[in-house]
C-alpha cells in the first residue's frame, strides 16, 4: 500500500478552521414549546496544507458534510473561524472571498447528481469558469484538465448518460479542477462507485495531490479507503473531532470509541467475508 508522504507541519495551512461550532434549530415539538437546537459541530480545529491529503471519517450524522459546507463557505459558522491562506473568509474583503471560492472546490459522492444530464460534458466543464467569471483561454484549459484526469477530448461532445460511473466521477473531478483550485474536498467520492473502479478514482486523486500540489480533504465512512488515500486522519463523532492520527496508528491502536467502532466495522466485514468463503 503506498500512502501520500506526510507533509512537514511547519508548512502553513491553506485551508483551516479554528474552534468552529455550528448549531441548527430543529422544529418545535409543540406550538408553545421551545425550539430545540442541535450542536452539529462543536469546537472543531482542522487544517489542510498544500500537497497534503487529510482524511475525515466518522459515523453517519457525525457532521462531516456540515463541516464541508463551512470549509467551502456555503454556510457561515455560528462560532469560530474559517481561514483561507491565513485570512478569515468571512472578515476578509470581496477579493479574498472570490479567491477562496475559486480555490476550494468540491467533488461529491454521486457524479450523476453533480452533472446536468442535459448538458454536454464540454459545456459542464466550462460552467464553473463562467459562474466564477474566470478569464483566459477556456478551450486550452478544458484540454489541460481532461488530460489531468485521463480522459479523451471526445468526451466533450457527449452527454453524462453515455459514461460509466467511474468515467463520470473523472468528469466531476475535471469540473472541480477547472477553476484551478488549491484545495479539493471530496465527500465520499467513491462510495457510489463499483468496487472494481474505486481504486482508479482513488489513484487519480492521489496523483493530483502529488502532481499539482493540491491539498485534499477526503471524507468517508470507510477507514480503509481513507487510509489508502491520506497521511493524516481526523475522526469525528457527534460533531466533535475525537481523535487525529496516521491511518496505520488508528488501525492498530484506536483510542476513541468512535475510532474503535470504525476499525471494528472493517474487521467484521472482513471476518464475515472469510466466514462466507469457508461456508
Ligand atoms: N439543515 C439542517 N437542519 C437541521 N439539522 C441538520 C441540517 N443539516 C444536517 N443536520 C443534522 O446535522 C447532523 C450532521 O449531519 P451531516 O450531514 O453533516 O453528517 P455526515 O457526517 O455528513 O453524515 P453522512 O455520513 O450520513 O453523510 C445530523 O444529525 C443531521 O441530521
Ligand atoms: Mg455526509
Give structural notes.
- With 279 residues, the protein is of the alpha/beta class.
- The protein has one domain (15-278): Rossmann fold, CATH 3.40.50.300.
- It has helices spanning 64-71, 94-103, 111-114, 121-131, 138-148, 165-177, 195-212, 223-229, 247-252, 257-278, and strands at 15-25, 37-48, 53-58, 79-84, 87-88, 104-107, 183-187, 215-220, 232-237, 240-245.
- The strands form two sheets. The chain has a six-stranded mixed β-sheet, sandwiched between helices. A four-stranded antiparallel β-sheet has the order 2-1-4-5, covered by helices on one side.
- Helix 4 runs parallel beside helix 6 and helix 5 (138-148) crosses helix 6.
- The longest helix is centred in the last third of the chain and has 22 residues, at 257-278.
- Mean pLDDT is 90; it is low at 1-5 and 275-279.
- The structure holds adenosine-5'-triphosphate and magnesium ion.
- The site of magnesium ion has 2 residues, from helix 1.
- Magnesium ion is lined by residues 64-65.
Amino acid at each position: 500500500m503506498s500512502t501520500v508522504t506526510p507533509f512537514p507541519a511547519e508548512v502553513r495551512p491553506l485551508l483551516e478552521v479554528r474552534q468552529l461550532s455550528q448549531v441548527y434549530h430543529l422544529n418545535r415539538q409543540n406550538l408553545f414549546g421551545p425550539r430545540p437546537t442541535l450542536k452539529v459541530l462543536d469546537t472543531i480545529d482542522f487544517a489542510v496544507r498544500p500537497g497534503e491529503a487529510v482524511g475525515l471519517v466518522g459515523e453517519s450524522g457525525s457532521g462531516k458534510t456540515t463541516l464541508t459546507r463551512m470549509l467551502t463557505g456555503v454556510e457561515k459558522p455560528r462560532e469560530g473561524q474559517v481561514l483561507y491562506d491565513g485570512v478569515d473568509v468571512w472578515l476578509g474583503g470581496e477579493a479574498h472571498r472570490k479567491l477562496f471560492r475559486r480555490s476550494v472546490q468540491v467533488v461529491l459522492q454521486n457524479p450523476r447528481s453533480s452533472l446536468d444530464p442535459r448538458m454536454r460534458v464540454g459545456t459542464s466543464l466550462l460552467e464553473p469558469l463562467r459562474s466564477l467569471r474566470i478569464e483566459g483561454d477556456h478551450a486550452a484549459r478544458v484540454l489541460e484538465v481532461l488530460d489531468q484526469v485521463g480522459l479523451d477530448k471526445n468526451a466533450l461532445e457527449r452527454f453524462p448518460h453515455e459514461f460509466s460511473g467511474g468515467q463520470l466521477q473523472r468528469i466531476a473531478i475535471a469540473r472541480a479542477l477547472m477553476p484551478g483550485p488549491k484545495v479539493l474536498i471530496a465527500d465520499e467520492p467513491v462510495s457510489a462507485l463499483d468496487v472494481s473502479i474505486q481504486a482508479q478514482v482513488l489513484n487519480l486523486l492521489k496523483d493530483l495531490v502529488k502532481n499539482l500540489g493540491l491539498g485534499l480533504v477526503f471524507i468517508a465512512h470507510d477507514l480503509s479507503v481513507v487510509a489508502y488515500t491520506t497521511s493524516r486522519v481526523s475522526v469525528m463523532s457527534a460533531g466533535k473531532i475525537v481523535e487525529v492520527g496516521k491511518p496505520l496508528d488508528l488501525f492498530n491502536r484506536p483510542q476513541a470509541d468512535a475510532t474503535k467502532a470504525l476499525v471494528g466495522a472493517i474487521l467484521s466485514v472482513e471476518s464475515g467475508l472469510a466466514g462466507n468463503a469457508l461456508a
